[in-house]
């Protein structure tokens, strides 16, 4: 399955993935991360039940720490 992540094409390893699966697969830290799916923010508690579909657009935003 093909999706777009932060404006970059990404081929997923299988045809069924939730946002939680995607975060785990890409080793994205869940703390301090926000994800929008097709320009709509998805609450972190919804990641395990939000399925990705062909041509979805995912935006991953991670908070930066430091000074």
Write the layout of secondary structure elements.
Layout (H helix, E strand, L loop, with lengths): L1 E4 L2 E4 L7 H7 L7 E5 L2 E3 L14 E6 L5
Can you walk through the features of this model?
By secondary structure, the protein is mostly beta strands. Helix content is 10%, strand content 33%. The longest helix has 7 residues, at 19-25. It starts with a strand and ends in a 5-residue tail after the last strand.
Q: What attributes does this structure have?
A:
67 residues, five-stranded mixed β-sheet, mainly beta, 33% strand, 5 strands
Q: Supply Rg.
A: 12 Å
Number of helices: 1
Order of helices and strands: EEHEEE
**Please, what is the average pLDDT?**
93
- Biggest β-sheet description: 5 strands, mixed
Spans of at least 5 consecutive residues whose pLDDT stays below 50 are none
Helix content: 10-25%
Distance between the termini: 39 Å
**Overall SS class:** mainly beta
Number of strands: 5
Per DSSP, what share of the residues sits in E-state strands of 2 or more residues?
25-35%
Broad shape: globular
Which sequence of strands runs across the widest sheet?
Answer: 2-1-5-3-4
């Amino acid at each position: 399955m093909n999706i777009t992540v932060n404006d970059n094409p990404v081929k997923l390893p299988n045809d069924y993935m939730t946002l939680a699966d995607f975060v785990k697969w890409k080793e994205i830290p869940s703390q301090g991360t926000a994800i929008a799916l097709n320009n709509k923010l998805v609450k972190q508690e919804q990641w395990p039940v939000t399925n990705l579909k062909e041509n979805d657009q995912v935006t991953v935003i991670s908070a930066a720490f430091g000074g």
